[in-house]
């Protein structure tokens, strides 16, 4: 495998994804918490960083633990750091370089640059530049404005590159990474979903033996794939619980429960709608809603888990980005919303935790799901927040408001599906606002709710843009909603991007 040391760059995760796309396994660690080098580690990549080696407090590591032992590739800051520590000089660039540049010279068709071509676009994003290098280092490529665009240490397989091969704007970035990972480090490209499943199922069998495992299904991709993997390992000893919190989409509980049963899962559907509605009564504050829902979920789950005799394990669908975030250089990012189920269930459950997806990125989870033959209707689903429709009903939640919003959402989503737009959108939903406005229906004045439609494109939900849905489509959906849903007389479309807005309204 490849180790990626994170110095805080926004692109670190991308490096990992690119390496995985080469079917090579890799792991990210913060630079200040590096595991010991084992035989399994075939190479190390240093990421970029928002810091400068010229700062007294710059992030640094003991290079001798890697250099000469395994091949090393420093990207941007990583390259500057190694050059600096070896006696080179790093200065502020006279021009800050952001964006496209072209390789104008490849001085040495070294293994790293094999098959790279003159004129190839490379993506630059740096404020510092490597000005002088010591004799121990040779320059292997340049651009017009950056002499040391790529270098190699003469005595060992240590490379530095000023540009970012991991971003798609770097034409031959993938070739460069392949050269490093496959040809220089000697990694075998055998990290596939089939291989992952085989190894994980074997590990799970070893780890769990004949114990019983409980897992909370949500209808989403992660928990479903986690369930199918564990199911493959231990069969009926996996007890799945799917809770109807009364905040799901229209008919979702029934249809999803049905697909789970078809998949052969041992799943119990628990109707706890009223417990959730009772706990939410009168609460308007979004964070209090989340807390109430989280609390009731744990209560329900705990009640159910206690009914499984002698259960030893709790399975969770945690995926790699959650893990990276919880141990990142910057620490868990500041809480804007008390998101997600990170933090898990409280100690009193006293269960050991098993997380079979914790090394996978989202697209890899989907791939594994596909290989496990999980239905496309589950794998292709948009993300849906744990607190469900509660955070799309502004002000307090009542069963009546849920029923209105379910109808609106259903019309929106089924039209997206019908017109083939569903897969172009990353996430979509409707928001029931507490605003009432005047309308006219027939000869009658109405005074009813305004609903907002929200559809976004995104890669990972961290940033998002509003989807440019066709006007005709919006017109049809709006008509259908106003004609069919009692209690709604006005539809608006949310055209805010994230940031500065967020995807959900609460
Ligand atoms: P925001 O609104 O922060 O949402 O732009 C980003 C993504 O996170 C989802 N989301 C949540 N998911 N519990 C969840 O499990 C939550 O409390 C929660 N709040 C937002 C949101 O749907 C989007 O996919």
What sort of overall outline do the alpha carbons produce when their principal axes are compared? globular
* Separation, N- and C-terminal Cα atoms: 41 Å
Low-confidence runs of at least 5 consecutive residues: 331-335, 339-343
The major β-sheet equals: 9 strands, mixed
* Secondary structure tally: strands: 18
CATH homologous superfamily grouping of the largest domain: HUPs
Domain module count: 3
The Cα radius of gyration reads 26 Å
The CATH architecture name of the largest domain reads 3-Layer(aba) Sandwich
Helical coverage, percent range: 25-40%
The CATH C-level name of the largest domain is: Alpha Beta
> Roughly what is the average pLDDT, rounded to an integer?
92
Bound molecules: xanthosine-5'-monophosphate
CATH topology of the largest domain: Rossmann fold
Q: Oligomeric form of this entry?
A: single chain
What proportion strand? Answer: 25-35%
Structural class: alpha/beta
How many alpha or pi helices? 13
Order of strands across the widest beta sheet?
2-1-3-4-9-8-7-5-6
Write up this protein.
With 506 residues, the protein is of the alpha/beta class. The chain has 13 helices and 18 strands. The chain folds into 3 domains: 2-184, Class I glutamine amidotransferase (GATase) domain (Rossmann fold, 3-Layer(aba) Sandwich); 193-379, HUPs (Rossmann fold); 399-493, GMP Synthetase, Chain A, domain 3 (2-Layer Sandwich). It has a 9-stranded mixed sheet with strand order 2-1-3-4-9-8-7-5-6, sandwiched between helices. Strands 12-11-10-13-14 form a 5-stranded parallel sheet, sandwiched between helices. Strands 15, 16, 17 and 18 form a 4-stranded mixed sheet that branches. It is globular and about 85 Å long. Residues 331-335 and 339-343 have low confidence and may be disordered. Xanthosine-5'-monophosphate is lined by residues 290, 337, 339-340, 383, 385-387, 427, 461, 498, 502-504.
């Amino acid at each position: 495998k490849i180790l990626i040391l994170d110095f805080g760059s926004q692109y670190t995760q991308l490096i990992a994804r690119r390496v995985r796309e080469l079917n090579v396994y890799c792991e990210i660690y913060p630079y200040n918490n590096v595991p010991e080098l084992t035989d399994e580690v075939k190479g190390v990549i240093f990421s970029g960083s928002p810091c400068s080696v010229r700062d007294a407090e710059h992030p640094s590591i003991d290079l001798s633990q890697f250099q000469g032992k395994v091949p090393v590739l420093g990207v941007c800051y990583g390259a500057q750091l190694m050059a600096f520590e070896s006696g080179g000089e790093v200065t502020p660039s006279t021009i800050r370089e952001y964006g496209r540049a072209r390789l104008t010279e490849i001085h040495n068709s070294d293994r790293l640059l094999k098959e790279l071509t003159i004129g190839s676009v490379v993506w630059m994003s740096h404020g510092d530049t490597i000005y002088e290098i010591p004799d121990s280092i040779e320059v292997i490529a340049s651009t017009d404005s950056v002499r040391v665009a790529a270098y190699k240490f003469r005595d060992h397989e240590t490379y530095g590159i000023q540009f970012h091969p991991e971003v798609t704007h770097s034409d031959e970035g993938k070739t460069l990474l392949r050269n490093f990972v496959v040809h220089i480090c000697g990694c075998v490209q055998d990290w596939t979903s089939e291989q992952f499943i085989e190894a994980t199922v074997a590990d799970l069998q070893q780890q769990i033996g004949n114990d019983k495992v409980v897992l909370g299904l949500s209808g989403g991709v992660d928990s479903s794939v986690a369930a199918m993997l564990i199911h493959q390992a231990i069969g009926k000893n996996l007890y799945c619980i799917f809770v109807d919190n009364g905040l799901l989409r229209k008919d979702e509980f029934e249809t999803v429960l049905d697909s789970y049963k078809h998949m052969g899962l041992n799943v119990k559907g628990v109707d706890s709608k009223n417990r959730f509605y009772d706990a939410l009564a009168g609460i308007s504050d979004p964070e209090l809603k989340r807390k109430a829902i989280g609390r009731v979920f744990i209560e329900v789950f705990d009640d159910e888990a206690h009914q499984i005799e002698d259960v030893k394990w709790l399975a969770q669908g945690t995926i790699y980005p959650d893990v990276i975030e919880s141990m990142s250089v910057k620490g868990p990012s500041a809480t804007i919303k008390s998101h997600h189920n990170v933090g898990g269930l409280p100690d009193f459950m006293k269960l050991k935790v098993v997380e079979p997806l914790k090394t996978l990125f989202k697209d890899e989870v989907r791939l594994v799901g596909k290989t496990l033959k999980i239905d496309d209707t589950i794998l292709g689903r948009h993300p849906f927040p744990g607190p469900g429709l509660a955070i799309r009903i502004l002000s307090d939640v009542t069963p009546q408001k849920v029923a209105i919003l379910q109808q609106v959402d259903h019309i929106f989503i089924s039209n997206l599906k019908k017109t083939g737009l569903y897969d172009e959108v990353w996430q979509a939903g409707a928001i029931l606002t507490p605003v009432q406005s005047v309308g006219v229906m027939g000869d009658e004045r109405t005074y009813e709710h305004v609903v907002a439609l929200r559809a976004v494109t995104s890669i990972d939900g961290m940033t998002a843009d509003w989807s440019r849905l066709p006007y005709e489509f919006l017109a049809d959906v709006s008509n259908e909603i106003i004609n069919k849903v009692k209690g709604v007389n006005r539809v608006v479309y949310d055209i805010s991007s994230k940031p500065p807005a967020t995807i959900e309204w609460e």
